Amino acid sequence: MTQSAHILELARQLRVLRAEDVRNQGWSPQLLIRLHEAGKLQRVSRGLYGLPDAELSEHQTLIEVCRRVPKAVVCLVSALHFHEIGSQLPHEIWIAMPEGSHSPKLSYPPLRVSRLRGTAYSEGTEVLTERGAIIRVYSAAKTVADCFKFRNKIGLDVAIEALKDAWISRKVTMPELSHFAKINRVEHVMQPYLEAVTQ
Question: Where are the domains of the chain?
Fold first, then answer.
């Protein structure tokens, strides 16, 4: 197999390909441009390539962000939308990054970055594979607790709606919510709302 054939096979496996993926295999990233010019790869966005006939996922932008920002975890409004909780439609991709990490430099899509430390960043991450591509997103319960933690940023009404909808649709359990409320240090804030939804 030629390097080009290997790259096309890798694109089939990963769905979205970066120059770094090609370089890690010991192949020339210049081949990505040649394959693009030959119509064998399409440019999905800056620095990302995929097969022209590849069926795009409804979560394509999340896949692209997770490929380009390895420490990013989809959070808050974007995670609510992913889990189909509440009525919020994000106009940007909300991601969590570890405290002290550099801000990602992406021209597209627009990002909203939240900094988290320790278990508030590391716990509750679900790594999902969609058509071979990876999406890192916080679980439904972690997302609801995060909404209360960042209620000043997204609005208390959004957090309350998320809690009610997640509870009614059985996407969360009380032990999960309590666990993440404790990690986020919002037990006292969430307590009256937790009591209200269980009555």
Answer: 3-50, 60-198
Cα–Cα distance measured from residue 69 to residue 67, given in angstroms and rounded to the nearest whole number: 6
Q: Do domains 3-50 and 60-198 have the same CATH topology?
A: no
Q: Please count the residues of the chain.
A: 199
Structure tokens at 184: 């986020």
CA nearest to 137, candidates 174, 69, 195, 82: 82
Query: In the 8-state DSSP scheme, what is residue 30?
Result: H
Model's pTM, two decimal places?
0.74
At residue 186's C-alpha, the angle toward residues 185 and 190, to 5°, is 155
Q: How far apart are CA 17 and CA 24, in angstroms?
A: 12
Q: Which residues of the chain have pLDDT under 70?
A: 45, 54-58, 131
Q: From the centroid of its chain, how far is CA 58?
A: 13
- pLDDT tens for each residue of 92-112: 999 999 999 988 887 778 899
User: Alpha helix (H) ranges present in 59-186?
Assistant: 60-68, 76-82, 119-122, 140-149, 151-154, 156-168, 174-183
197 CB neighbour count, 10 Å cutoff: 16
Given this structure, which CATH class describes domain 3-50? Answer: mainly alpha
Least Cα distance to 197 among 166, 176, 175 occurs for 166
Distance CA 133, CA 50 (A): 11
| Gap between the Cα atoms of 59 and 135, Å rounded | 9
Fold of 60-198: Beta Polymerase; domain 2 (3.30.460)
